[in-house]
């Protein structure tokens, strides 16, 4: 089967690789400059979009350039767009970012869950004044967009939701949703496919030796990098968190955007250097005692039988002022 995948996020890429047949499918990956390295080891064609023609500092000039570039791109891709229209090829990915909502704005698409955002229906049809103005500017310069995203649009064939996140299919997606179990998809993969996936994400087998049934994995967040907290305050908070797990093997999974060297602050913890999505660990059947976070949604990528300690934004006034309560994600069940 011919398939096009729109690569925006590593987690979504992993799920697509689990859904696709990497030995039989004719796959084309579409992404931006700077993100293509992970695709080098994957079988299939790659289409790399030029960032300079997709983004720019001047909003008006940017819209004009983007509109022209997308029209040129769609002209070049006309044959495959026709095959998507006829059903000979299928499109996969996210429908709410630039690739899915603008470049492939009217093609039928199979949406892949990106995270908890897919369970917030109000995100599907943005109606704030700022978003309406941005949409108006886009239309003024000939940029078409999907009217509804997150799987709610009429041109969505299917939306894949993971059973680790999906407690209940959101209203409006009942007829499109397919609930998938990532571990089961991994088990069905051939050994060659598994090797391809691990190589693409630079999976380091060393982590397997560090994790035992009593291990605790802490997911940190870029609070100092985003200017919300000082570096010192961030480390202070995580020190308090780690102190709550004495005599446990603590593994720290830093956010990809963080610059903090946690190994200097917590020499007794194993700090993961790898950038792959945590679901790759989950599909391989790695067992943890619990996963821990302030309010990162990454903790929901594991089996439901793994305990979650969710401290929430209430641990610091600045976090609470910036993000408000995270009860819509998970009611906090741990306290500092």
Describe what this molecule looks like in 3D:
- The structure is a single chain.
- The chain is α/β, with parallel strands linked by helices and 336 residues long.
- The protein has 2 domains: 197 residues, Rossmann fold, CATH 3.40.50; 121 residues, Sialyltransferase, C-terminal GT-B Rossman nucleotide-binding domain (Rossmann fold, 3-Layer(aba) Sandwich), CATH 3.40.50.
- Helix content is 32%, strand content 17%.
- It contains 13 helices and 12 strands.
- Strands 3-2-1-4-5-6-7 form a 7-stranded parallel β-sheet. It has a 5-stranded parallel β-sheet with strand order 10-9-8-11-12, with no helix packed on it.
- Strand 9, helix 11 and strand 10 form a beta-alpha-beta unit.
- The radius of gyration is 21 Å and the shape is globular.
Enumerate how many helices there are, as a single number.
13
From the alpha carbons, calculate the radius of gyration and give it in angstroms: 21 Å
CATH architecture of the largest domain: 3-Layer(aba) Sandwich
> Can you give the mean pLDDT?
88
What is the CATH topology assignment of the largest domain? Rossmann fold
Widest β-sheet, arrangement of strands: 3-2-1-4-5-6-7
Q: Assess the beta-strand content as a share of residues.
A: 15-25%
Sheet with the most strands, sense and barrel status: 7 strands, parallel
Distance between the termini: 52 Å
* Unreliable runs: none
Q: For the record, what CATH class of the largest domain applies?
A: Alpha Beta
Helix content: 25-40%
Structural class given helices, strands, pairing? Answer: alpha/beta
Q: Which descriptor suits the 3D outline?
A: globular
- How many domain modules? 2
Question: What string, H for helix and E for strand, traces the elements in order?
Answer: EHEEHHHEHEHEEHHHEHEHEHEEH
Number of separate strands: 12
């Amino acid at each position: 089967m011919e398939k096009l995948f729109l690569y925006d996020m590593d987690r979504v890429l992993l799920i697509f690789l689990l859904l696709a047949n990497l030995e039989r499918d004719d796959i084309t990956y579409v992404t931006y400059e700077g993100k293509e390295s992970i695709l080098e080891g994957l079988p299939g064609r790659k289409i790399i979009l030029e960032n300079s023609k997709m983004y720019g500092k001047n909003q008006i000039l940017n819209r004009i350039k983007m509109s022209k570039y997308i029209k040129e791109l769609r002209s070049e891709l006309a044959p495959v767009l026709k095959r998507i229209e006829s059903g000979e090829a299928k499109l996969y990915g996210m429908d709410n970012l630039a690739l899915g909502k603008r470049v492939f704005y009217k093609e039928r698409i199979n949406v892949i869950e990106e995270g908890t955002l897919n369970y917030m229906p109000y995100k599907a049809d943005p109606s704030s004044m700022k978003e309406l103005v941005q949409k108006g500017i886009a239309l003024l310069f000939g940029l078409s967009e999907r009217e509804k995203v997150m799987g709610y649009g009429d041109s969505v064939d299917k939306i894949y939701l993971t059973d680790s996140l999906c407690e209940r299919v959101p209203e409006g997606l009942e007829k499109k949703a397919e609930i998938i179990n990532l571990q089961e998809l991994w088990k069905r993969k051939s050994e060659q496919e598994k090797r391809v996936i691990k190589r693409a994400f630079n999976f380091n087998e060393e982590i397997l030796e560090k994790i035992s049934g009593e291990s605790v994995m802490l997911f940190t967040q870029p609070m100092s990098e985003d200017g919300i907290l000082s570096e010192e305050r961030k480390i202070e908070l995580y020190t308090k968190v780690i102190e709550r797990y004495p005599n446990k093997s603590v593994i720290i999974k830093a956010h990809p955007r963080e610059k903090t060297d946690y190994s200097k602050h917590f020499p007794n913890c194993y700090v993961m250097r790898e950038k792959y999505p945590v679901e790759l660990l989950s599909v391989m059947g790695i067992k943890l005692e619990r996963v821990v976070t302030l309010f990162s949604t990454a903790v929901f990528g594991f089996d439901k039988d793994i305990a979650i300690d969710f401290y929430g934004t209430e641990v610091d006034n600045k976090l609470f002022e910036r993000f408000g309560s995270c009860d819509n994600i998970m009611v906090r069940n741990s306290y500092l």
